[in-house]
Design goal:
Order of helices and strands: HHEHEHEHEHEEHEHEHEHH
Number of strands: 9
Radius of gyration: 18 Å
Oligomer: single chain
Number of helices: 11
Largest sheet: 8 strands, parallel, barrel
CATH class: Alpha Beta
């Protein structure tokens, strides 16, 4: 990975002495279309880095893997510099670091919105919007906002999350920004929130998420790869991005699952975080290159 420490030290100084530099950089950032105006095969490869804002740092057996911000930024800069990587998903702190480092030029930038459902908290399912809102995303010249929607029929906190997501979908549409909704049916097991990854549960979550807001014109779905993705994709006409998921199992098995799902109608790409940023062998560039080839075509 590149040695970014001098740049990161300068970033610290810039944040302390010239906070207005963030807005200035956002105003002049070179943007790109979300998808080309024509060509139905266009797809997106996005890297996700919004986990720390929920207090979720773990990768496999390392509970604090993502806690070192310098290391996370170094890995993100490597990933964003690889061919075929279209953009990034993150909270304002991460995206603004990358902006000041010059890593977001010509990239799709999606801001993460509801991070209030802290990992392991009693209020985890009452997932408040504590990060970006639609207005701040538009002001920062981002391309969309992402929200997590976990639905537990036994947890009253779900109602507030549903309402918050619906309002966010409507507000993003007013600004003509993508509303990326990541839905799950969830339940508590031994006090911990677990997502139901059965095909039936994912189909149900798709139907609920698709109906949020006063319009679905700008709504996209971010969905896990499960057993019967044909049935999942048949449940919606909304553009869909595949969730890379947590880095469990052999990489080749994971890549094979992604490749199969990417071929289905309605799938518009892949959003992956820890799997690519913290690969087993430590080679971020190689892991990202495999995923980018799967999304945009070419041999693995």
């Amino acid at each position: 990975m590149p040695e970014l420490r001098p740049d990161l030290d300068r970033l610290r100084e810039l944040r302390a002495r010239r906070p207005e530099a963030i807005a200035e950089a956002a105003a002049t950032r070179r943007r790109r279309p979300l998808l080309p105006a024509d060509g139905g095969g266009a797809r997106l490869m996005l890297v996700a880095a919004d986990h720390p804002a929920r207090g979720a740092f773990g990768v496999r057996g390392a509970p604090a893997a993502m806690a070192d911000r310098y290391e996370l930024l170094e890995r993100l800069v490597v990933a964003l510099g690889r061919p075929g990587v279209d953009g990034v998903l993150g909270t304002a702190d991460v995206l603004e670091d990358l902006l000041l480092l010059g890593a977001l030029e010509g990239k799709v930038v999606i801001g993460s919105m509801n991070r209030g459902g802290l990992a392991g908290a009693s209020f985890e399912l009452d997932d408040r919007f504590t990060a970006y809102d639609a207005e701040s995303l538009a002001a920062a010249r981002c391309d969309g906002g992402k929200m997590l929607l976990r639905i537990d029929l036994d947890d009253a906190g779900t109602a507030a999350t549903l309402q918050g997501c619906a309002r966010a979908v409507t507000a993003l549409a007013r600004h003509r920004l993508m509303a990326m909704v990541e839905p799950f049916l969830s339940r508590r097991v031994d006090g911990r929130v677990r997502n139901d990854l059965s095909t039936e549960a994912v189909v149900t979550s798709v139907a609920i998420a698709s109906g949020l807001g006063a319009t679905s014109a700008y709504s996209w779905l971010k969905l896990p790869v499960v057993a019967d993705m044909t049935a999942v994709l048949a449940a919606t006409t909304l553009p869909t991005l595949l969730l890379g998921g947590d880095p469990d199992g052999a990489p080749e098995d994971t890549y094979a699952e992604w490749e199969k799902a990417l071929a289905l109608p309605g799938v518009r790409g892949l959003v992956v975080g820890r799997t690519l940023l913290y690969p087993r062998d430590g080679d971020v560039a190689a892991a990202v290159d495999v995923a980018a080839r799967l999304v945009h075509g070419g041999p693995r």
